[in-house]
Amino acid sequence: PDYFIGGEARLDRDRAIAAIEEKIARPLGLSVTDAAAGIISVVNSHMVRILRVVSVARGLDPRDFSLVAFGGAGPMHAADLAAELQIPRVIVPEAPGLFSALGLLWADLRADFVATARRNVDAANAPSLQEQLDRLDAEASAWLEREAVARARRRLVRSADMRYPLQNYEINVTLPPGRVSTTWLKRAREAFHAAHEQLYSYCDRAEKVQLVNLRVSAIGITGRARARNAKRGTASPRAAQKNQRPVHFQELGKAVRCPIYERDLLLAGNRIRGPAVVEQADSTIVIPPSFEANVDGHGRLIITRAAAKATARARRR
Description:
Layout: H1 7-28, H2 32-54, E1 66-68, H3 74-85, E2 89-92, H4 99-106, E3 109-120, H5 126-146, E4 154-163, E5 171-174, H6 182-200, E6 210-220, E7 241-249, E8 254-262, E9 271-273, E10 276-280, E11 283-287, E12 291-295, E13 301-305, H7 308-316
C-alpha cells in the first residue's frame, strides 16, 4: 500500500514498475509481478554461479561454510542463495550496507613482495630458495618499518605459486616456517600435493614439484573493534514489528502478508519465522517462508532453515 512508502521511494517504485512492464512483462506476455520474480531468479542464478567459482571450483564444499550477507542488496538474496547451495547458515552483520567500509577501516595493513623462482623443490635448489626468501623477508620488514608498525604487530607470511612440471596453472601454497632444509622441502612438497588433491581430487606424490613464484606478505596487525553486546529480550519479536504488507515469494508462487520488522528495535534472543522482512537504513533483509532468523548476543541476524511445519503454514496462507 502507498501509505507505507515515502514520496521519493514511491516515485522510484513507479518508475521500476513502468520499466519492467514496458521492457519485459509486455513483450513476454507476463504480469509485472512474474516478470520481476523472473529478474530476481536470473540475478540469483548469476550469484550462485559466482559462489560456486569461489567454493566448489576451489575444492571447497559450500555446506561446510556460513554465508555472510553484506551490502545493501546482499541480505535480500542471501537466503535463496543458501537454499540453492545448501549453505546451512546466513549471517547478516549489524550494518550490512556499511560492511565493506568498516572492513577497510579495520583491515590489517598489508603489502605483498614477489620474486620469480622457477626451480624444483629439491635439495639442489635449497640455497638459492633461502637466498630469495631472505631478500623478500628483508624487503617486507623494511616496508613494515616505514609504515611505523610496532614490532609486536608485525607478521611475515610466506607462500609460493607451485605446480607439477608442464602444468599451465599454479596453486598458491603457504610455505612452512623456518629456514630451507630437507625437512622444509618435504613439508613444502606435501603442502602442494594436499592442495592439488583438494582442488582437483588427485595428486602425484611421485612427481617433482616446481616452484614458480615466491611470495612474502608483510602484515601489520591493526586494532580490532569489539562487537557490541545487544540488549536481551524474549523470543517474541513483536515489539519490533511496525506493520504488515503483501510480499511475493517465488517458492510460493504468490504474495502473502508478511510482518515487517524494524531492525533497530530487535533484541538479542528474538526469533523471526519466515515469511518476513526486516528493514534498516542501509539494507533490507528478506526471510523466505522456509527460513527463520535469530538475533544473537551481538545483534547479528542468524538465518537458518525453518522446520517443515512453518513452511507448510506459509503455503496455506
